[in-house]
Design goal:
Helix 2 crosses helix 3 and helix 7 crosses helix 11. The protein has a two-stranded antiparallel ribbon. The protein has 288 residues and is mainly α. The N and C termini lie far apart (72 Å). It folds into two domains: 83 residues; 165 residues, hpI Integrase, Chain A.
Length: 288
């Protein structure tokens, strides 16, 4: 099947993450099913025309611009592979423009909210959950890990003052652990032990799936009245606090967060700096 062959190429040759491969395959199948639900998928994909792709994208007009852009990119990549592999003579998506994506400012926790979240995790009665959840929250807020990155950390990735992380596309990076992270890590390992396996585990010693880890974080957010926020907002919080209070260079922040593009990191420059605050407070109308 074409999609399976594409996924092998996408994973083995281009080194894309398993999750990315699954999402691409799902999107391609969805397009084929939308176009001709009664025909074999391979046949539909081989006969698909540019007008078909355009109609498909138009049918998704109520979806966000980011979603429509992702659909175009997925199909363009797939059909480019089809041409390269000799399955088609043309790429019906080549040169098709993507909708403009407007970047919204990230939502994040205030410094006081972040401290309240850590204090809440530290107040749990059960020692296992107290130490594990505290580490999870502290790593999130200090290091800005992605959910999948935190869930995937193995014991052999953990050092005294750093953690090796495998990010998007299998890209590796080392994230330094500050004093708060190191202390929370020591306390957790004192309860978990130093045996092999995932760093973050259940009471049964099993690694937590990203969705289970998200539930852990969500529970802590609910406890402090922040249940309306998603777990990803803690990554935004880490980046914002680093930029606002850590005075880090934008390139350093990019390295910490594991962004492939500096443009993704630049969204965090929305934070009001001390210099801007001082300028606004010195405005001649500030006290009028």
């Amino acid at each position: 099947m074409l999609i399976n062959s594409f996924v092998v190429y996408f994973s083995a040759v281009l080194g894309r993450a398993d999750r990315t491969c699954v999402e691409y395959a799902k999107e391609i199948r969805y397009f084929a099913a939308w176009l001709e639900p009664g025909l074999p998928v391979d046949e539909v994909l081989m006969l698909a025309m540019r007008s078909d792709v355009r109609r498909y994208i138009e049918s998704c007009s109520e979806r966000s611009a980011a979603t429509r852009a992702r659909k175009i990119s997925t199909l363009r990549t797939f059909f480019a592979w089809c041409v390269d592999a000799g399955h088609r003579s043309d790429n019906p998506v080549a040169g098709m423009p993507r909708p403009k994506i407007s970047r919204s400012l990230p939502v994040y926790l205030s410094l006081d909210d972040a401290k309240a979240l850590v204090r809440s995790a530290r107040s749990r009665d059960d020692l296992f959950y107290r130490r594990r959840n505290t580490l999870v929250i502290i790593l999130y807020i200090n290091c800005g890990f992605r959910l999948s990155e935190l869930a995937g950390i193995q014991m052999h990735d953990v050092y005294d003052d750093a953690i090796r992380v495998v990010g998007k596309g299998g890209k590796e990076r080392y994230v330094y652990l500050n004093n708060s992270c190191q202390r929370a890590l020591r306390l957790w390992l004192g309860k978990r032990g130093h045996g092999s396996g995932h760093l973050i585990v259940s009471k049964q010693g099993q690694g937590l799936h990203p969705s289970s880890l998200a539930s852990v974080v969500k529970l802590e957010l609910v406890k402090v009245g922040l249940g309306h926020l998603s777990t990803h907002k803690l990554r935004h919080t880490a980046a914002t606090l680093l930029y606002r209070y850590g005075h880090v260079d934008i390139r350093a922040l990019q390295s910490i967060l594991g962004h492939a593009s500096i443009a993704t990191t630049e969204i965090y420059t929305h934070v009001v700096s001390d210099q801007v605050i001082a300028a606004m407070e010195s405005h001649p109308m500030a006290e009028f």
